[in-house]
Amino acid sequence: MSYQLLAPRGLETRPLPDRIKQALFDWLGQRMDGLVVVDCCAGSGAFAFEALSRGARRVEAIEPGAHAVPVLRANAAKLGNPPNLVLHARPFRRCCRGSTASTSSSPTLPSHGTRTTPGRSPSCCASAQAASRPPPAS
């Protein structure tokens, strides 16, 4: 079933172009069964909801924009408030404070598509922050 999602008004939020989203799913694989996904700057939640529909175990949606959070919540309600969607209505850096590692063996996939080390917790985005750094030289 397909739903028309609401979009935040104005120019503060830019949607992820369909061709970029498709390239991400082509690279990551069409199924995301059991994975944990971090969607930074979630906006309308389109990427987050797509990841859930493809089998993601949990999606951490981070949206710092006060203008976009009500839209993201409305879209979640339209889709039945998925229990495996965790909304962080605060800036990315505030999500990273106080995070702890988990024992999860699933890789984490930040919305820009970089895989991170298995076992890192996405619960407050520590793994997304780590993924943005280049790997150490061997």
Output the keywords:
5 helices; disordered C terminus; four-stranded parallel sheet; Rossmann fold; 138 residues; alpha/beta; globular
Main β-sheet: number of strands, strand sense, barrel status? 4 strands, parallel
Question: Which runs of at least 5 residues are low in confidence (pLDDT < 50)?
Answer: 98-136
- Domain tally: 1
How much of the sequence lies in strands comes to 5-15%
* Shape call: globular
Radius of gyration over C-alpha positions, nearest whole angstrom: 14 Å
- The number of helical runs is 5
CATH class: Alpha Beta
> What sequence of helices (H) and strands (E) makes up the elements?
HEHEHEHEH
Instruction: Work out the number of β strands.
Output: 4
Summarize model confidence as the mean pLDDT.
74
**Distance N terminus to C terminus?**
47 Å
The CATH superfamily is known as Vaccinia Virus protein VP39
Task: Give the neighbour order of strands across the main sheet.
Answer: 3-2-1-4
| Helicity range | 25-40%
User: What oligomeric state best describes the polypeptide chains here?
Assistant: single chain
| CATH-defined architecture | 3-Layer(aba) Sandwich
Secondary structural class: alpha/beta
Structural summary, described in words:
- The chain is α/β, with parallel strands linked by helices.
- The chain has one domain (18-124): 3-Layer(aba) Sandwich (Rossmann fold).
- It contains 5 helices and 4 strands; from the N terminus they run H-E-H-E-H-E-H-E-H.
- It has a 4-stranded parallel sheet with strand order 3-2-1-4.
Helix-strand layout with pairing:
Layout: H1 18-28, E1 36-40, H2 46-53, E2 58-62, H3 69-78, E3 85-88, H4 92-96, E4 108-110, H5 126-131
Parallel strand pairs: 1-2, 1-4, 2-3
